[in-house]
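Lay summary. Proteins are chains of building blocks that fold into shapes, and those shapes determine what they do. In this project we predict the shape from the chain. Here is one chain we studied, written as its sequence of building blocks.
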Amino acid sequence: MDCEKIGKLICHLRQEKHMTQKQVADLMNISDKAISKWERGLGCPDVSLLPELSEIFGVNIEEILAGEIKLNETIGGNMKKLKFYVCPHCNNLLTATGDANLSCCSKRLEALAAAKASGEHLLNIEPVEDELFVSSSHEMKKEHYLSFVAYVTGDRAYIVKQYPEWNMQFRFHKLGHGKLYFHCSTHGLFYQLL
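And here is the predicted shape, written in a compact code that computers can read:
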């Protein structure tokens, strides 16, 4: 741990929140001298205080310990860079258009890598007027099912959440070229071009 880097970050975060050392210290029930000591790089916060610092400043504990916050570049409206994250325990679905540190059920999630669909994982896609009728004969049991389907174009993403025992069929309003992403609870993320 680099106490100097951590101290500079704490000082920056405190100033960003327009707080004094005393205000932070009062929230943590510690002396403002401790905050001053940290900010000057003469010591680091005790591990037991990190969750509270994280809460006050709205940053991850890992960022405090690293002494820096990594910011993403500003990303335009291009949804083609959309990343999908699925919790392996509760099947919670999260998305991000840039790099993100996400966790669920106390576990860090990694962005899923999509494989091109083939064989049993191909979805049936039928144009019906100005819509796409999507269906699949994929098994839909608790142990093995499609948990979501997402229609992603350059500026939009439409997601349909699926559950075991449901019929795997629905409609999307046709928006032009894009990809259909879908997640099999056993085999991972797949995509099909539209």
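What the prediction tells us: The chain has a mean pLDDT of 90.
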